[in-house]
Specification:
The protein is an alpha+beta fold. The chain has 3 domains: about 140 residues, Immunoglobulin-like; about 90 residues, Sandwich (Immunoglobulin-like), CATH 2.60.40.10; about 120 residues, OmpA-like domain (60s Ribosomal Protein L30, Chain: A). The chain contains 6 helices and 24 strands. The strands form 5 sheets. A 9-stranded antiparallel beta sheet has the order 1-3-4-9-7-6-10-11-2, with no helix packed on it. Strand 22, helix 5 and strand 23 form a beta-alpha-beta unit. The longest helix is centred in the last third of the chain and has 21 residues.
Length: about 400
């Protein structure tokens, strides 16, 4: 065997062993995570396992404290230890391919962290631990690490969008073939030296109900620039008020398929929005996609309030409007220097003067509501435009969009 043939043979063996023995990704990129004090340092793939090396660092004295009543994860039924917190890894932790939660990879074992008890940690302590999962199917190069939903007194460790090296068998074999083609003096195709691989069975398929979660994911954007923004999502689940923060604008939530959710999306310098979801009412209970576009709080910005309702042909507010109006109240409380103009609009059907008067009265009803909630009247102007500023024409359904209430930011 000449030198070139030997080098080609050795290269093919190396590529094959790299596939057989697994891929290693140091400090993998993670799109989002629920707890900043836990870090994924390394992901290693072997024939049998997906091995994840993690590091936990307990907060030091003098560091910002967690909210009152908050503790790091502890075993249900066991309270936090005096003088410190407790950590553990939920034995139901699993890995998912984003958007395909029927493909789950179960936790097999863990080292240096308990799964059926708890471990006390002290201020400034660092804990390195390892979690072994079923082997990710070759070709999955992005996955989620999902421990569970946080609740009062606990913080789950969830990582979304973990990027690793995990080529498919076909990619690995193609790499071997491409290496062989660069060695013209080899007498036999180099791919003959590839070590046969054990076929890995696809992950067990289970429904969202069996998994116990549904997934809501998407992005949060600046409505004007269409660029992602840092934001926060708040919601209530089984009586617990939960929130997640996204610095990149990308988010992913694990939800209980049997629950009904009201989400509130906020970002500093933007007018927030709300979103409702009932996974049980949908035929697709496993995964949902929802992007949000928030309007910046800048002078001249016109923001439509979609959920303001009045009695037919009258200006009395209906209770269904209160949630939307309370959101505006909160924004003005948080931004003391903002002044706005409430604008009422109607369609252009009927008497012009009556429509103009009705739109003014409706704007004033909104103004009155805000004042009763403690917002200074001097910060709120009210004006009616009747049907003079229609945004659409056509069918009655389309013209209904003209009947709306907006507010314009006049001072920041």
């Amino acid at each position: 065997m000449n030198c070139r043939t030997f080098l080609a043979f050795a290269c093919a063996i190396t590529l094959s062993l790299n596939y057989a023995l697994g891929q290693v990704t140091e400090n993998p990129k993670v799109d989002e995570q629920s707890a900043q004090y836990v870090k994924i340092k390394r992901v290693e793939l072997t024939d049998q396992f997906t091995i994840i090396y993690l590091e936990f660092i307990e907060k030091k004295s003098g560091m910002p404290q967690a909210p009152q009543g908050f503790n790091f994860p502890f075993k249900p039924g066991q309270g936090p230890v005096q003088g410190g917190n407790q950590i553990w890894l939920d034995p139901e932790t699993r890995l998912y391919k984003p958007g395909e939660i029927e493909k789950k990879f179960k936790l097999i074992k863990a080292e240096n962290i308990p799964t059926n008890s708890t471990k006390k940690v002290t201020a400034g302590e660092k804990v390195d631990f390892v979690a072994y999962f079923e082997r990710l199917t070759p070709g999955i190069e992005e996955f989620d690490f999902y421990e569970g939903r946080s609740s009062q007194g606990t913080q789950s460790w969830n990582f979304y969008g973990i990027h690793i090296k995990n080529p498919s068998k076909k990619q690995s074999q193609n790499a071997s073939k491409n290496t062989a083609k660069t060695q013209p003096s080899a007498k036999k195709p180099v791919e003959e030296a590839v070590i046969p691989q054990k076929e890995i069975a696809p992950a067990e398929k289970v429904s969202a109900e069996e998994n116990g979660i549904a997934v809501l994911k998407g992005n949060i954007y600046n409505a004007k620039t269409k660029q992602p923004i840092s934001a926060e999502i708040r919601y209530v689940e089984k009586g617990d008020s939960l929130q997640i923060k996204s610095s990149s604008g990308k988010y992913r939530l694990g939800l209980d398929p049997s629950e009904k959710y009201d989400f509130r999306v906020t970002a500093k310098g933007f007018y927030g929005t709300t979103f409702n979801l009932s996974p049980a009412d949908s035929t697709e209970k496993a995964a949902f996609n929802q992007d949000f576009y928030l309007n910046p709080l800048a002078v001249g910005e016109t923001i439509t309030m979609p959920n303001i309702y009045f009695e037919t042909s009258k200006y009395a507010l209906l209770p269904e409007s209160y949630a939307e109006l309370d959101r505006l109240v909160d924004m003005m409380r948080e931004n003391k220097n903002i002044r706005i103009r409430i604008e009422g609009h109607t369609d252009n059907v009927g008497d012009f003067d009556k429509n103009l008067e009705l739109s003014r009265q409706r704007a004033e009803s909104v103004q009155t509501y805000l004042v009763e909630k403690g917002i200074e009247k001097s910060r709120i102007e009210a004006k009616g435009y009747g049907g003079t500023r229609a945004i659409t024409k056509g069918t009655p359904e389309e013209r209904a969009k003209n009947r709306r209430v907006e507010f314009v930011i006049t001072e920041v």
